[in-house]
Amino acid sequence: MNSALQLQSSPYTSFMQETKVDLGNGIQLHVEMGGNPEHPTILLIMGLGAQMLFWPDFFCKSLIDQGYQVIRFDNRDIGLSSKVRHKGPRLNTMKMMGRFAFGLQNQGAPYNLFDMADDAALLIERLGLEKINIIGASMGGMIAQILAAKYPEKIEKIGLLFTSNNQPLLPPPFPKQLFSLIGKPESHDEEGIINHSLKVFKTIGSPGYLNQVEAMQTARKLYQRSYHPAGVLQQFLAILCTGSLLKLDKQIQKPTLVVHGSCDRLLPPSHGRAVAKAIEGAKFELIQGMGHDIPPHFIPQLSGLFAHHFKS
Does the keyword Zinc apply (predicted)? Predict the structure, then answer.
């Protein structure tokens, strides 16, 4: 572990420390780490428009308690990491989504998922880590697939959570779920944004497992930490301009576990199955009743599955 890092205690949890890491490519990432640095490392890569706090503290702590050092971070353009200012032409998102669904190339985004995978590779380097385990959720799982294919020397094993390889003709996200994620809030004051976040949690989350009070507190915490809707759109464009990862999946030689919720309507389970089928020897686990989120109810099962996979 790089000893020159300036670590401070995290404002969110007693068992994590935070730091800023300059990648040297114009991007600074905000990072939190917890657990024993002597233990094997798990790097958590979050999804579209999601700050690192979407990795629940309880999930991180469960992995730490099972003998891992855990690192979570804000991707570029979100949370407390660098924002990317883009002066290019406005892109037609609907048209790009259509092309994307049929496997046609899109261009024009300020960056794509390959750039975001390079960020993660540079982060591993800057932290002075050797061979690590990764868990990528949703868009973070797409970044993890690229990372494992492009930088196999940095990766030990792979965990993927409710993700996709975006191969052509997979069933599209249900419209309600997709538009809740990329839609606009009714008003731009704090309450309007928080109500919008709550609607998103409800729409894409595991049916019957949303704790209204906790969800409100989370939404407020996220809003007060950082609110940057332009970054969410740019990350969505990054996905649309990256396209299918099927060819990359065929190059991955690492032990891979793909986990998906049976009630995921943002990325239906066939997306996870497609990833597991494309990566040689990958295992697939379907979690009954889980949607596109990580509610406390499923954390013991999830953290157990991933910890066991990385140990086996």
Answer: no
DSSP character at residue 3: T
Coil/strand/helix, residue 18: strand
Q: Return the beta strands (E) in the chain as ranges.
A: 8-9, 16-22, 28-34, 41-45, 69-73, 132-137, 155-161, 256-261, 283-287
Beta bridge partners of 26: none
Strand spans (E) along 65-206: 69-73, 132-137, 155-161
Most distant CA atoms of the chain, gap in Å = 49
Confidence of residue 4 (pLDDT cuts 50, 70, 90): confident
CA 244 from chain centre, in angstroms, equals 17
Q: What is the mean pLDDT of residues 97-111?
A: 94
- Render pLDDT for 158-216 as a digit per residue (tens, 0 to 9): 999 999 999 999 998 888 998 888 888 988 899 999 999 999 999 999 999 999 999 99
Residue 23 contacts residue 30 (beta carbons within 8 Å) = no
Q: Name the band, by pLDDT with cuts 50, 70 and 90, for residue 28.
A: very high
Complete edge-to-edge strand list for the sheet that includes strand 283-287: 8-9, 16-22, 28-34, 69-73, 41-45, 132-137, 155-161, 256-261, 283-287
Q: How many residues does the chain have?
A: 312
Q: Which CATH class is domain 8-311?
A: alpha beta
pTM assigned to the model: 0.97
**Amino acid identity of 15?**
F
| 3-state SS class at 158 | strand
Closest by CA to 43, choosing from 164, 161, 159, is 159
